[in-house]
């Protein structure tokens, strides 16, 4: 008998009757899993499986990848362009020509009246790299606005900034293979089993073959923390204090790799002097980790033959995100753990192609990690595109997090949002809503017409999804992989690449600049631009000149740099193995990182820390996973993890609704009682509309302009349960 039933219902796996398999790459997170899509005899997609010959995932997929084939006909997909005069009016269907003509005319009118930079563009980490390159060419070389950025500012900007400050250039120096070689792994604010399940499987497999210490730094008892040898439940936002205290122990006990420091770094004396102020006796009272544990962890890490650090949003989404990344780099350079097997600073990227937008989109500069501030870079790209270099601005414009405040002040009058959803993803939702309502013109380009931000648009452009297109992604370990065009676009949607090309033709510079007709043609331009030397004479790390679509598919992805002379299809596993860095001196920068506490702190009025993060079933703002039954049914509604002891004091019961309030707004959530969070903290997944980002502070990192999503204070209030249930159902419609 099973739960009162007399007869066990047998498990039946329906036959998929696959006639052929097509190769592609997963379009969710940055792991970069190789996928095969199964089509039946009617050329209809019926299933998905991992590619067993791919090094990244070796045949495995997480729940999102397994169900990814359901995206193509999921509810809410855009079927045709839509247009209206006011955002509160009803949409009318229109032709592609009319929608694009209107968009181009509105952009020109706004720029003519208010200046070129009065129109802004915000893109995504979800597009294909060739689409990023084409959009960057359109934004920088045709439309000419300097206010162009991507939603990667919300997730990876601090990693980019930290890498640039330490090493002289962006690009994760390590790879997944480092798990096989490391003797100690320290994870800062990274919950791999839920954020990147296949990367976690790679780590778990390495641990089973050869156990090594796993140290997890996280204020919450995450799934990864449950598997750790040592869990450090740090006070939110104080990672720099912990690392400085570790460096204090390592240097004062002579555990540093002085030979590596002397040969390959600069700035050691300044770091050595600063960390003398971070004795673990004092540091423990700030970071919440006791003195003995700090000393123990520092010694374990420094004495390991090879040690590596990984991190995700727990570091990046902070007012000290860039400093935290730079300090992790300090830790690894001082212990000689850069560029060798098992020794690295590896940021675990968020979106499937966040690396592609960092490399080629021109959001923060020009293609191929070139800088607007560098005259030689401006001249090189202008010459290649065939325009006057004076058309380019000489400094980077506003980041995404600065674009929305610029709408409030009237500096930005028009906005084009591509494949991102700031009404759910940006902090302080009420402020974003008011900003969008103030725009003279808003165009939304997205796979789904029911995306929350489309409530405020004047033109909607329906885009194709994933394997309805062709192009490449770059994953966390710099591996370029191919997305194959398996199906035609859904109804009258169009590939983003096509949309960018068509819009470019409606501007004067678009008649001068060559826009290749195919993604592969754009890839050939990228290959050409990836070659050559940096301004100080060193070779470009971001060199993909030896790649082709055929080679990428044959290798199941190739890591850059992969130069024309390279013959193996593996590419380069690690950067900086030669000890040379892309700085003028050729040495990496050790940076003294002082801690300043500017976070919002729990107080009598708002006594709880608010933390946010991912769950394994969903991706970002649920525009896709919220439409897929077997993803959504496991996490269908917003909820809040709360400590049972804190709940008892407030009379809060398990699975009841509460009202959570901050200084910026309120949210209605269902309570999940668990010991995973301490008594003075609550945790909410960030995926749900009109929920956690109604509360978040969004104070910005000074270097990266990335928001601090994870450190603010809240209070818990009772709410009428029937009214809360009504609100919950209403918000789940998105």
TrEMBL record:
UniProt keyword S-adenosyl-L-methionine, yes or no: no
Q: Which cofactor does it need?
A: Mo-bis(molybdopterin guanine dinucleotide); [4Fe-4S] cluster
> Is Repeat found in the keyword set?
no
Mind listing the GO molecular function terms for this protein? 4 iron, 4 sulfur cluster binding; metal ion binding; molybdopterin cofactor binding; oxidoreductase activity
Q: Tell me, what is an example of a GO biological process annotation in this record? A: cellular respiration
Instruction: Pinpoint the 4Fe-4S Mo/W bis-MGD-type domain residues.
Output: 19-76
Keywords recorded for this protein, A-Z: 4Fe-4S, Iron, Iron-sulfur, Metal-binding, Molybdenum, Nitrate assimilation, Oxidoreductase
A Pfam family that this protein carries is Molydop_binding
Q: Return the GO cellular component terms, semicolon-separated.
A: membrane; oxidoreductase complex
Organism's domain of life?
A: Bacteria
Look up the EC number in the record and give it.
1.7.99.4
Q: Which family does it belong to?
A: Belongs to the prokaryotic molybdopterin-containing oxidoreductase family. NasA/NapA/NarB subfamily.
* Name the UniProt record assigns to this protein: Nitrate reductase (Quinol-dependent), catalytic subunit
